[in-house]
Every structure is written in structure tokens, then in C-alpha cells.
Amino acid sequence: MDERTGARSGAAAIPASQRGHGTRDLWVLLAVTFLAFVNYAALLAVVPLWASEIGGHGGAGSVAVGATTGVMMAATVLTQLSMPRLFRILPLRAMIMLGAAMLGLPAPLYAVTDAIAPILVITAIRGIGFALVVVAGSTLLADVAGAGRLASASSYYGAAAALPNLAALAGGVWVARTWSFDVVFVTAGAAGVLAAIVAAPLPKRIRGTFHLASTAQLRTIASPVGLFLLTSGAFGAVTTFLPVAGPAAGTTAVALFGASAALIVARLGAGAVGDRLGTGRVLAPAAGLVALGAVTLAVALSLDGPPSSMLLVLGATLLGGGFGAAQNDSFVITVERLGAGRGGTGATIWNIAYDGGLGLGAMGLGLVVGHLGYAHAFIVLGAVIALCALPALVSRSRSPLTPG
């Protein structure tokens, strides 16, 4: 999701004969992204729920449930660490098509096993596919977006990735509990396969490039990337454990819907702010919003009755909105500070923080839940993020804001 204004992403430039197809290619990329994330979002909360209920004897423990998200994100991050080599081997379109197929084809296999080990293997395969889709797609974005519109194009890309959450994230849990897990697995698999087919018209020969950043450059992005990783961890923890800890399927579905809707609105809003006012304005406040959402969820899980349900929805909505705003601003900061020619590098680092955060958040909260319970675990999560966001908030208030 390269958001550098006026700079190339690091992918090879599109030949002059193909430049007229930029708008078409952007729409194709958005459609592919939407379908791939239908697969991803539908299973993000359903696979942990499946792991918690399989076998008819209480299912997996909290650590194993968290591992279903953690393993996928670990496979995703390990693949992303291999992107410098993969960029030399495969064009970006081939990566996207292969990745989408790896997301879709294994998904129905969840239905044929009730053991945690095969579930983790299937999830790891999907994690590899997910990495190919998100890094290749975000690297290709700068070549199919119009000049001077990369921040906005990135927000559209982010919206395409987040829109499936509105129906698939919350709806997947509802369908699994109301109808059947099998319906979710098959539907998600079909979406992934369709994404691979829809990707066929994308430019054929564009490859990503990866240039190492200097130590000084990496230091300039350490704080924003680290803060974004924490917000991603919070979202991974919520999507993994809220379906398990929530008071009722209907309330949980509404809470996840609220988180998804807020994520999209905040992501688009951050893109508009980035185009008009410059970057770096919303990351720290967004992280504070995530912390507030986590604490609100903790209060909700410690109460009973209608107040609990209302606070659960409010907390998830606050957290999702903060995460959405943090996504756009952190990516802009990362790519701009690394500079021209390192768009592939920036996309890879940012996606590692995104996906690594999701996995670490799920596994980390799983460990804390085992010792403290759900409510106290969410309080710890919110406190950690708030403590890390506070120095950034103070720093921004003491220094003039400059674009980029």
C-alpha cells in the first residue's frame, strides 16, 4: 500500500503502452483485494472459534486458540521476510494469483479435521498465500494509481481490504454458529479462488524491487512502525478472543461489525488528511483510541446485562477506528521516510508489522488470558498501548507539524 506522493514504489515502471490501463488496473487490484480479504476476514475469527469447539470435549485451550491466528501470521511474516528473493523470481501478478489460490483452495479442508495440528498446517499454507497477496498488491499499487493520488489510492486499497470485515468478519461467526462452519469454509475458499481468476488482467511483467534501508533510515521509522505493531496486536487479540469471550453470538457479531465499519471510515479519513495536511498527524491519537477501546472491552467483559453489550460494541468500535486510522498514517510515514526507490522495502516492513502484530497480539493475549482472565487481559493490553502512545502524543504537541 505505497502511499508516497509522486514517488515510485520500487516496482518497475509500467511501459508507455500500458499506462492508459492504469485506472482499469487499479479497479482490478481493488476487486482482487476485496475477494482475497473476504477469505481472510471470514476465517480470521471463525478458525479460532472452530478450534475452541472441535472434538466435542471442550476444544483447544486459550493458547492453542491464539495459535490459530499466531501461526497464520507467523507464516505470513516469514514469507514477507523472503520477499527480496521472491521479487526476483515472480512478477507481481503471478504472486497475487498464486497467493489468492493458496488462500482459497485449502480453506474447505478445515471441515474435514477436528484436530488442532492439521488446522495449524492449513492455516500456515493460507498465511503464505496471504503474504504474497498483500505485499505484491501493495507494491503494485503505486504503479496503477495516478500521480499525486497515492495517499488516496492507498485509502481506497485499505477500504477494499477492510470492507469484507463488515459482512465476513462478523457474519462468518454468525453463520458458523447459526448454520454451519462448513458454509463459512466453502464460501471463503470460493472467494480466494475467484480472486486468483480476477487477477488475470493485471500487468504481467512488473516485478517488485527491494533495496536495503540504512540504519539511520530504519531508526526514523522504528517508533511509528512499533506503535502501529501494537495497534495491530490489539486488533488481532480482539478478533481472536472476542467471539470466544463475548456474551452472545448476536452481540459479538454487532461488536465486530462496529469495529469493521469504524476501521473503514477512519482509514478513508486518514487518507484524506494525508493528502491535504501531510502525514504523521493521526498515528499517536489513533493508538490512544485503540487503548481506550481495549479498556472499554475489559469493562464490558466484567459486567452483565445490557450495559455489558453496549460497552462491548462501543469498545470494539473505538478500537477498530483507531486501528484504521493508524494503518494509513503509519504506512505513509514508513514509505516517505525510507525515500524513493524503496517502496517495496516500505511495503514489506509495514506488512510485517501489520501481520506480525496480529499474530503476536493473539498469542500474547492468549498467554495472559490463561493467567488473568479475559477482562484483566484487555486492561493490560490497553495499558501497554497507552504507555507507548503517550510519548508520541507529547512529542507531537511540543513540535510543529510538518507534512511528511
UniProtKB/TrEMBL annotation:
Compartments reported by the entry: Cell membrane
Gene3D superfamilies per record: MFS general substrate transporter like domains (1.20.1250.20)
Keyword field: Membrane, Transmembrane, Transmembrane helix
Transmembrane feature ranges: 26-51, 57-78, 90-109, 115-142, 154-175, 181-200, 221-242, 248-270, 282-303, 309-326, 347-368, 374-394
Domain Major facilitator superfamily (MFS) profile, chain residue ranges per copy: 184-404
Domain of life: Bacteria
Topological relation to the membrane, as annotated: Multi-pass membrane protein
PANTHER family: QUINOLENE RESISTANCE PROTEIN NORA
Protein name as annotated: Major facilitator superfamily (MFS) profile domain-containing protein
Protein's organism: Occultella gossypii
